[in-house]
Design brief:
This protein is of the alpha+beta class. It is built from 16 helices and 16 strands. The protein has a nine-stranded mixed β-sheet with strand order 2-6-7-10-1-11-12-13-14. Strands 5-4-15 form a three-stranded antiparallel β-sheet, with no helix packed on it. It has a two-stranded antiparallel ribbon with strand order 3-16. The structure holds zinc ion.
Amino acid sequence: MSWELVIGLEIHVQLRTAEKLFCSDGTAFGAEPNSQVCPVCLGLPGALPVLNGEAVDLAIIAALGLGCQVHEVSVFARKSYFYPDLPKGYQITQFSEPLATEGIVLVRSDGVERPIRIRRIHMEEDAGKSIHDRVSDGTAVDLNRTGTPLVEIVTEPDLRTPGQARTFLQELKRTLEYLDVSDCNMEEGSLRVDANVSLRASGADEYGVKTEVKNLNSFSAVERSVVAEAKRQTAILDAGGEIVQETLLWDERDGSLRAMRSKEESHDYRYFPDPDLPPLRLDSERIRVLKAGLPELPAQRRARLMEVHDLEARDVDVLIASRSLANYFEALVAVVGEAKVAANWVKGPVLKEANRVQRSVEDLGIPPSDLAALIELVEDGTVSGSMGRKVLGQMVDTGKTAREIIETEGLSQIQDSDELNAWVDAVISENAEEVERYRSGESRLIGYFVGQVMQKSKGRADPKALSAILRGRLDQ
Ligand SMILES: [Zn+2]
């Protein structure tokens, strides 16, 4: 029997606010444990929540950017459960009346573009963090994150392969970055994923029993854990067994899944409207203004760059990977003029340097105008392309301009024929045997002679001028 894999995702995204969702504590990552807490987020008696308007705006922007319908009335509810990192004993979230519903994200994989539906987006507060390795005889708790504003984005079960899930998440993350609603830093927990996984007989309409894999904080963890869970479920079903609805934890170190608890039903949480918070009523004008102010999204930018600059789709896909990279590219084109030249530099040497020093392109310290000056020196033949790439590395390391490096290190290409002729003479007299073979028909040896002269010139001979001189001498 063959099985079809069905995947739905729930993504928690931390909104980029200075303050928490219902109090004015800060949200900075990495602060001293329990230094960003107050009676509201600690759930002390009598403390009352006050909704953060900035968080509401960011949540609306996220929903609009993902094509959702934003509802003018939504309701905050209490989700009751006990856990040491949840001092109130309930989490404030939205349940039966969420902020937004019915969005869509277009995902391109294997050359096919398919729509992945967003079922709902709701606002909620984060819980704290239990820390198991800080004290030797127990578990410590850090409540700094308690009350941090999140949106939870829930997809319909529209994904069919682990690869599609990964591609969807990349597109979602990129869209949220373009919208500037979150830093989406997965290492710091700003974007966390739960995956709902089930199998059904190929061609069946009904979904199978699903399990939930919790708290995945990298794209590869999502992909690998779904592969592992699909394999586990397949083995059970093939043996005639039944899938138990449960929550699983993925262990990234050994690639294993273990049962965390049997999955709760929503009635276990005793949801009810939070009596401290009135329904959230949004003015339609506020939604309209935020919609009008939405930035250009990745798909639109892809289309525009392809059209305006006549670039290939696969080049543009690299350039729009982040909004800052696309901005950098466009600023460079504005100075350089030639879009293809600028694109080749950005997606090649510039990204390679960023990767080498583990910084983003905008943090490399190379303003587009400085890179443009280097490109001009390569284009006019002052330095070769390969020397240009080396100079770029030195610009990153030293903060000097291309011209300073080329002048102080004497790196400009040698086109002077006296100098080149002297090296060619030397190479010809040192390689009599190869000269003989070249003249009797082994014309591919020209590359060898060029290499020998380049060595003598320490890479500075202009290969074009050099080739011409070499051919003139050898073809006599
Ligand atoms: Zn607080």
